[in-house]
Amino acid sequence: MEIKLGLKENWKQFSLLVLVNMLVGGMVGLERTVVPLVGTEEFKIGSDIVIFSFIIAFGVVKAFTNLVSGILADKYTRKRVLILGWIIGLPVPFLLAWGPGWNWIIAANMLLGVSQGLTWSMTVNMKIDLVGPRKRGFAMGINEAAGYGAVGLTALLTGYLAAAYGLRPQPFYIGIFYTVAGLILSVLVIQDTRRHAQLESALVTATSSGEKMHRPNLLWVFKETSFRNKDLFSISQAGLINNLNDGMSWGVFPLLFITMGVGLEGVGWIKAIYPVVWGVGQIITGPLADRVGRKPLIVWGMFVQVLGHIVIGLEFFSPLTSGLVGSVFLGVGTAMVYPALLAAVSDATHPSWRASGLGVYRFWRDIGYAVGALMAGIVAHYLGLIWAVHIAGFVTFLSGMLVWIRMKETMKK
């Protein structure tokens, strides 16, 4: 069968990958509302740092898995790595539902981090492989919309299930469906896309930064993406700070709003609205990144997130309303940033090492989960939960300014 690049030419496989990434995102959504409360109410943990340890474990493991996912994809094919990710994720909902102690929850999150690092990385790489260079923003917008839309809807559903049936085990039953369905689809209907990447590699002479085709080792890619290339450095730090916000909100928001008198259903809505707006918004911002460029969306997306922190941190309205409005701003800002960052990395890396470059970027981005949770735990211990929101807003502003000053536009006109 002849290999062609483009969304129209590969729409069936693209659509199936969208469905798979909805299941991938749903696995993260399982934890957004319920797990912090399992720690405080079921296991009676009083330390914020200990409570947030499950996010730290998830973020660190996912980040390092992202780092090697590109190498694994190039060596063993995208499809095999995708299947492996689902197999590793199979025990997660069972551990979350019936784990007898907090260490079991942390173990579940370590497995979830590996699973997410493999499955989500592959859906990103495979969609980029299929569509080619002209529709990268659109492809990433659809991919992340599917994933984070499922995160939000699952967070909302688990909030209602927890309010109706208790914190465990019922809210985690849907995770069993997600893992089984994701594995079946990945084995039976998803096709590998490495030949599409090889076709594009043969057609590309140089990237937006002038980089020509070669096959560098991971150390070279890590240095180039992390600090040697100023555009990739700007992108990587923005990704880290963006997920710092998510890691902070993941742990802080359920505890903060419960102490403010918001019920489980209300917390579920607050935790759902952020990733739902984030996800659905990328249907618009992904294609927009292909029209106006990457940099404007990254810079102004960071500043819109700052507005979300201000609304929540200064409590302009009632606790529930502040949480909802602030989460909308956080979601809109993240929707602007997310597909633009992924598309910008793809612009600045040659197809011959793009999977590894995306892996390094996603390493820094997802380390943000751990950094955000650790920062929130320390700050909450000494200053209170609300100060974690203030500090996250301040560093987000600094990150947006750095992109504004240092990064040049990566999209080819």
UniProtKB/TrEMBL annotation:
<dbReference type="GO" id="GO:0022857">
    <property type="term" value="F:transmembrane transporter activity"/>
</dbReference>
<feature type="transmembrane region" description="Helical">
    <location>
        <begin position="323"/>
        <end position="345"/>
    </location>
</feature>
<dbReference type="InterPro" id="IPR020846">
    <property type="entry name" value="MFS_dom"/>
</dbReference>
<keyword id="KW-1003">Cell membrane</keyword>
<dbReference type="InterPro" id="IPR036259">
    <property type="entry name" value="MFS_trans_sf"/>
</dbReference>
<dbReference type="InterPro" id="IPR050171">
    <property type="entry name" value="MFS_Transporters"/>
</dbReference>
<feature type="transmembrane region" description="Helical">
    <location>
        <begin position="104"/>
        <end position="124"/>
    </location>
</feature>
<feature type="transmembrane region" description="Helical">
    <location>
        <begin position="172"/>
        <end position="190"/>
    </location>
</feature>
<feature type="transmembrane region" description="Helical">
    <location>
        <begin position="50"/>
        <end position="69"/>
    </location>
</feature>
<feature type="domain" description="Major facilitator superfamily (MFS) profile">
    <location>
        <begin position="1"/>
        <end position="194"/>
    </location>
</feature>
<feature type="transmembrane region" description="Helical">
    <location>
        <begin position="145"/>
        <end position="166"/>
    </location>
</feature>
<dbReference type="InterPro" id="IPR011701">
    <property type="entry name" value="MFS"/>
</dbReference>
<dbReference type="Pfam" id="PF07690">
    <property type="entry name" value="MFS_1"/>
</dbReference>
<dbReference type="GO" id="GO:0005886">
    <property type="term" value="C:plasma membrane"/>
</dbReference>
<keyword id="KW-0472">Membrane</keyword>
<feature type="transmembrane region" description="Helical">
    <location>
        <begin position="389"/>
        <end position="407"/>
    </location>
</feature>
<protein>
    <submittedName>
        <fullName>Putative MFS family arabinose efflux permease</fullName>
    </submittedName>
</protein>
<dbReference type="InterPro" id="IPR005829">
    <property type="entry name" value="Sugar_transporter_CS"/>
</dbReference>
<feature type="transmembrane region" description="Helical">
    <location>
        <begin position="12"/>
        <end position="30"/>
    </location>
</feature>
<keyword id="KW-0812">Transmembrane</keyword>
<keyword id="KW-1133">Transmembrane helix</keyword>
<feature type="transmembrane region" description="Helical">
    <location>
        <begin position="297"/>
        <end position="317"/>
    </location>
</feature>
<feature type="transmembrane region" description="Helical">
    <location>
        <begin position="81"/>
        <end position="98"/>
    </location>
</feature>
<keyword id="KW-0813">Transport</keyword>
<feature type="domain" description="Major facilitator superfamily (MFS) profile">
    <location>
        <begin position="231"/>
        <end position="413"/>
    </location>
</feature>
